[in-house]
Design a protein that fits this description.
Layout (H helix, E strand, L loop, with lengths): L9 H4 L1 H18 L1 H8 L2 E4 L2 E5 H16 L3 H7 L3 H30 L1 H4 L4 E5 L11 E2 L2 E6 L2 E7 H13 L6 H8 L4 H29 L6 H30 L1 H37 L3 H26 L4 H12 L3 H12 L4 H26 L5
Antiparallel strand pairs: 1-2, 3-6, 4-5, 5-6
Helix pairs in contact: 2-3, 2-12, 2-16, 3-12, 4-11, 4-12, 4-15, 5-10, 6-8, 6-10, 6-13, 6-14, 8-15, 8-16, 9-10, 9-14, 10-11, 10-14, 11-12, 11-15, 12-16, 13-14, 13-16, 15-16
Amino acid sequence: MIEKQHDIGFFERFLTLWVGLCIGIGILLGAYAPNVAKTLDSMSINVNGAPVVSIPIAICLFFMMYPIMVKIDFAEVIKAGKSIKPVSLTLIVNWVIKPFSMYAIAYLFLGILFQQFIGPEALDLVKMPFGLDLPVGSQYGSGTVVMHEGVKMMTIPLWRSYLAGCILLGVAPCTAMVLVWGYLADGNPGHTLVMVAINSLVMLVLFGVIGGFLLGVGQLPVPWEALLLSISVYVALPLFAGYFSRKWIITHQGLVWFEKNFLPILTPVTIIALLFTLILLFSFKGDIIMNNPFTILWIAIPLALQTLLIFAITYSAAKYWGFSYENAAPSALIGASNHFEVAIATSVMLFGLSSGAALATVVGVLIEVPLMLALVGFCKRTKNWF
């Protein structure tokens, strides 16, 4: 059985407001207490002298991801595999179209149309790719190895760092919030949750492969080992924890207790962990935003266009393939939304908490809530199409 979403919670309803407040708190924290975020970011697992896994971010992301994974009923996933059209549409849109359309749109806007506003000569300081130990001054992709506070890092064009964040959003489809969007659109909750599960399983294989390929095409550092490690820490670990804890809880407490007592506790924990991460991110990016307040706009435009494009493609394909509205709406919303929790954590792991890539993934959170609510409204107004 798959539990049905009965209502949108307090935290989800005002997520845009919470995100905005966290941006303000983060900027103020960076201005008046800059050492707080730096101290937390220094709590990391280092390999060859380079920080690879941020322990605070890893803890936060576990609490973001675990509630998603614990809801998955794998018996339902196996049954859904027999429904060729819904599964095929989800896989094609999310893994054949979406990553590459995101790259093309982000490159067009950030690398060509908006580059003069971002600053053609502006540089971003990012982590040295995990597994590499290049000498200072050497080139790797579009980056140059430098020594920063006793640690080897790289400088890359700032617009390419933003591009990297967009790429990571493009290869991270679907988030826990899509369960809310599907509910608000009067979609089939079972279909929604099963598609979330399928995407999570596919991510274990394709996130690193496609993400690494597109980062390489964009002349960005390609830390293959870190990509694999990020999937292990940020997807596989909560997936296995969710599977085994769900099985144990249902065996000892029963399915009703699991759905009525256990699951409601998790949602606010997830959002709080996300918001805490956002405060850290913006505490580092406050100076850039203050000096160039249009930075968020330059990143938001390609992300918004990508969302609208993927929604249009999926919604049209669902109608063409004869889906019922209850399955068409969540299918389109799944394609349009991003798994920003994984994108944020991976960008921090690969490029650093203060990187432009991390900022770009945060902008994805900022625009997702109002944009997805608008698409939910569009779905409900077009029920008669199906």
